Amino acid sequence: MNEIVLNHPLITHKLGILRDIHTGTKEFRELITEISTLLCYEATKDAKLEKTTIETPLEKMETGKLNEDNYAIVPILRAGMGMLDGIINVIPNAKVGHIGLYRDEETFQPIEYYFKMPENIEGREVLIIDPMLATGGSASATISRLKEEGVQKIKLLCVVAAPEGINLIEKDHPDVQIYCATVDRTLNETAYILPGLGDAGDRVYGTK
Ligand code: URA
């Protein structure tokens, strides 16, 4: 079991509005951002802090400091961009890399068309973000590509996951932890998640 599902009334509440066909672009974006922040909260629970001494108005104290620069956030274009604000709201100094993939119409394999990572990507902890983990093909290809670059610590953050996608990531990359807001029932014949929320990219960008 590589998935951590956020089980919380706030998430259930927000997901209900997010999924609703009547929810408009503005609210959809805001909710994706909020849920992404909550996913990030969970995914950074194991973060190592550096000891540092600060001074309150009353006295000195020792506290913990996150090395934000150690993180790279990698949205899978284009829907992944919808989650970015929610992550950098809480890790504002994280670096951001981008990957773009499309599906070959004959082989159905993901083909990379864009790949731009921050320097020293191999030394950073990478949080891949993509709202819908459907077949898992793009996420798995992204993880493989980052591993080729030498990245060792990778987490995958998504809003809605299908069992099919989770199974693929567990098979291909058992070392990668998945954080999701919910696990839905299944995929339909065109690889949309059921009940899902439709096309996340179209809903974030208002393209449909
Ligand atoms: N991508 C989406 O945007 N929605 C789905 O249901 C599946 C993949």
Describe this structure in words.
Helix 1 (9-19) packs antiparallel against helix 2 and helix 2 (25-43) packs across helix 3. The chain has helices at residues 9-19, 25-43, 81-88, 137-148, 163-172, 200-205; strands at residues 3-5, 49-55, 60-66, 71-77, 95-96, 98-103, 110-116, 125-129, 132-133, 153-161, 177-183, 186-187, 193-194. The chain has 6 helices and 13 strands. The strands form 3 sheets. Strands 1, 4, 5, 6, 7, 8, 9, 10 and 11 form a 9-stranded mixed β-sheet that branches. Strands 2-3 form a two-stranded antiparallel sheet. It is of the alpha/beta class. Strand 9 (132-133), helix 4 (137-148) and strand 10 form a beta-alpha-beta unit. The protein has a single domain, classed as Rossmann fold, CATH 3.40.50.2020. It is globular. The structure holds uracil. Residues 79, 132, 134, 191-193, 196, 199-201 line the site of uracil (URA).
